[in-house]
Amino acid sequence: MRTQNGARTRTRRVRQNKLAASNRNGKGKVRRRLLAAKVPPRAGVSTPGRINGNRDHAPTELAPSDPQFQAALKSFAAAAQYFQKHKYEKAHELFEKVLGSPARQLAERARVHLVLCERKLGRPAPAPKTADEQYDRGVAELNARHLELAIEHLSKADKSAPDREHVQYALAAAHALQGNTEISLGHLKAAIALRPGNRFQARTDDDFQPLASDPRFKRLVSIGDGKNY
User: Fold this and answer.
1) Closest CA to 172 of 157, 154, 160, 149
2) Neighbours of 118 (CB within 10 A)
């Protein structure tokens, strides 16, 4: 199943580009939801953290053509390759470099990957304190398919900062994978109300496969106002 202006990434969740795809943890996507870029990406994934505008204290948004963005992208790509080769120490070093860059979309994605690197290296990750940190941790747990932990962190993010569409979307994905259909549909409905673009994203998001045959899900992601399901 994720990291925030409207362009953001789920995430849990967005379709990530080929570079992001190379960072799969073997069990799930590093959404976009995430990490916009995913992140959903409305400017780039899925997605982690969009927030009806800008994430508090988030790095500045850069155009893809900006030299600083290109430099961060190069570092992110190299980090992704190291991660895929299980060279987590080097990957961690490069993801930290991206995290400090002004390329917001990539920095948010790097934040989630840092959690994964720390886990692989056996390092205890710092306890999340803010809503954004809870969201990032939730997305990382979702990507690893640790659904109970994902829901725990995402719920804390939702409680600390309600009505963030990317958090609602990530919760919907986590509950869908866990088989909590009613709860998932409720969060997805809220995510769509906050950002209608989530309707289209959910249609092709693998995390919602458990709901694919549910007529209520089909109505919710079909073109319309999404008020009823």
Assistant:
1) 154
2) 17
The C-alpha atoms of residue 197 and residue 226 are separated, in whole angstroms, by 11
CB atoms within 10 A of CB 52: 16
90: buried, middle or exposed (CB in 10 Å: 19+, 13-18, 0-12)?
Answer: middle
Taking alpha carbons only, the member of 185, 180, 178 closest to residue 215 is 185
Q: Residue 23 in contact with residue 86, Cβ under 8 Å?
A: no
How is residue 210 written in tokens?
């458990």
pLDDT < 50 positions in the chain:
1-60, 225-226
Q: Which tens digits make up the pLDDT trace of 151-180?
A: 999 999 999 999 999 999 999 999 999 999
79: which 2 tokens?
């980090």
Residue 211 and residue 163: Cα distance in Å, rounded? 23
What DSSP designation does 165 have?
Answer: H
Question: Which tokens go with 63?
Answer: 């155009």
**Residues 150-186: b if buried by 16+ CB within 10 A, e if exposed:** bbebbebbbebbeebbbbbbbbbbbbbbbebeebbbb
Q: What is the mean pLDDT of the chain?
A: 76
Q: Which helix (H) or strand (E) holds 28?
A: none
